[in-house]
Amino acid sequence: RHSMVDGAPAGFSRAEIHTAWNLAEKTIKQAEQVSAEVVVPAIQELRYAGRRFVEADAHEQKGEDEEAKRLLSDAYFFCCRAQHDAIDAATAKISLDLGTCVNGVTPADKVAVFPEYNELLDALISIEERVAQSRENREDRQHIYVTLAKTDFERIIELHKKFRRCEPELSKLARKASRAWLGKLAWMIGAAMLGFFLYPLRTLVFG
Q1: DSSP secondary structure letter of residue 182
Q2: Structure pTM?
Q3: What's the number of CA atoms in the CB half-sphere (13 Å) around residue 185?
């Protein structure tokens, strides 16, 4: 088992760095498909990783093995952070999409239109809890994110694609619920104003 420094192991192979890089790239692409925009923080972390990797090669050629090892550790660490940023960005966008779209829609209608609604919601909650756990337990942070990327995150991406297909119908129900609420509010305001204007008249008539 590698020793861990803020999620990055020391004394590992270039193959492990390549694996971490490829996993980060895959996760970033998934996050970009969800958000339909570039996940800038994650891309920046990969740029830092690439720079450290090149610098490590230069130092290794000079026989400066310890400095090369330190830079490779940094490169791995930045790959990990890129993956973390991508997962965080994707789950935040999915959570926002879900909350905005179903606001005001009854639980029964949510499930009727999108049967996996509760599964998606549970997966979001699970990811948020495990991300919070990773911040409290930095020793196991990378292990937690790797597990997320291979299990919960893959499933949540799949469920989000299904959700997007149901989104127009859910949005329609949300707008209908909003109009009903506004109509009720307008009726209540109208009734209150009518009472306000009728009160003086009632006083005059009945003393």
Answers
A1: H
A2: 0.73
A3: 6
